Prior knowledge:
Blueprint: H1 3-13, E1 16-19, E2 22-26, E3 32-34, E4 39-42, H2 49-55, H3 64-79, E5 83-86, H4 96-99, H5 102-112, E6 116-120, E7 135-137, E8 139-142, E9 145-148, E10 159-161, E11 166-172, E12 175-184, E13 188-190, E14 201-202, E15 218-222, E16 227-231
Parallel strand pairs: 4-5, 5-6, 6-7, 9-10, 10-13, 11-14
Antiparallel strand pairs: 1-2, 2-3, 3-4, 8-9, 11-12, 12-13, 12-15, 15-16
Amino acid sequence: MNFSLARASLIAEADLVGIAGERAVCDxxxxxxxxxxxxxxxxxLHLEKGSSLARRGALIPPYDTGATLLRLQAVxxxxxxxxxxxxGDSFHDGGGAERMHASFRERLEALMxxxxxxxxxxxxxxxxxxxxxxxxxxxxxxxxxxxRHEPSKERVEGEIAGHLHPCARxxxxxxxxxxxxxAGDGGRMIMPAFGAYTGSLNVxxxxxxxLFRLDTxxxxxxxxxxxxxxxxxxxxxx
Length: 238
């Protein structure tokens, strides 16, 4: 299947959501695609987290960067975006890009080739990644959308953010299910963390207080091969 057909198939099978008037695909692999803009966004890669923790004495296998890049390669191959936005905390610390193995750096640069690539500054990586192409920005406005790492405390229509690593929990027939999710209310979206060694925070946690219109809040839970749209009334803490 060629790239354009693969992309069309993904969009046709997806539940498109609206964000400030733009159509978006919440992909179950944890990326957000805007077909009209040919824009793909990913958040919180936390590359080189394993090596960062190892430097502090933690016994963590250093496999996270390779695993994360393989997953990123798959979604970029499927969507073939013209614009790619990495929405902050792309590296787990400011020295992550320098520590990256040469083979991983080459793989990342190959993914960046031929498209506009933006690194949004995060709290873990506030400066541009060392010796990598792409443009580093604090925030990025495209059309009606505003991409930034941490969600604004005030209401910003069209804001796409990360940082909080959202997840959702539901209970059905006595069974509890907790999964990473996109969290949105039609005007703002907070993306799940994409990185291999990243945790998650329930969307009902007080850290999200005031960020969403509660009457339209939805959690788009990541399934194995589809998204599950869950209304706020079904969400449970924990």
